[in-house]
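Fold this sequence, please.
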Amino acid sequence: MVDQDTKSLVELVASSKRGKSPITIRQHLYHFFNTVGKGVYDLTKEDILRYTRKKIQKKISLNLTLIYLEKLLNLAGREDLADYTKELRRSIRAPSESEVRRDFLEDDELKAFVNLLWKKAKMNSYKAKMQAALFLTILNTGSRVSEVLSLKPTDIVDTPTQMGITVVTKGGKIDFKPIRDRNVIQLLKSIKASPDGRLFPITVRTAENWFKSLLKEAGLPEKRVMRLRVHDLRRTAALLVFQETKDITKVKEWLGHSKVETTMTYLGEGIKRVQALRRLEAAEILSKKLNEAGE
């Protein structure tokens, strides 16, 4: 059990740190203190080092934990341990591109998944319609799952000149996401709002469970189901746009990224595949032209 002094400091860090939700910060810090089995004032350098060695395979999560722990230790007046935590974090090698999990649905997987969603959309089951509407909206707009889960009926735009949804982005900005498929708009409008006003009164965890369940139903092997996440639908949609437009700047604007470099990293291995296909196309064009010239 975490002692009261430590709990109070955890709450201070959770309420003062920007960029991550208080819940996420609490989860990281409570996991640390429950694992080491000590409160903040009994903590030693050896405790922090043992935890780091134990969690070293999960570098991204570990890095966040150490950032929050450093803040907490400074608040507790334990500057020596805070400095040690900072140096320890800096010594951890940043994850390489291959270590960061970035995935997307392959063409056959996407086809099977989308076909299943439209079957669900035609069912009388309210849950099936919600599932179809949720994931088709993510695919058609490239929105984050958290953005779609916050949708209310008033966020659906359906006028003679515009169709789409209005979302609040991760940065807190209000953004309009166009949808060109009227069937998706009609499906969204068929979903009745819950008592709290939302179209999808579920958590992100429930959305993840729905997603994996539907992937299994669509016939994807267990290994792929375990690897894929809901967020990979946003990446899949972005990759489809890039495949068609060959314009990374357009994809950047569509996703709402501030830098092209972010978009290129975000697409990960997918962008390399598209670039390889473009080189192959160029080689085939050149070969054809040279053969014609030699005739």
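The chain has a mean pLDDT of 88. Strands lie at 156-158, 163-168, 174-178.
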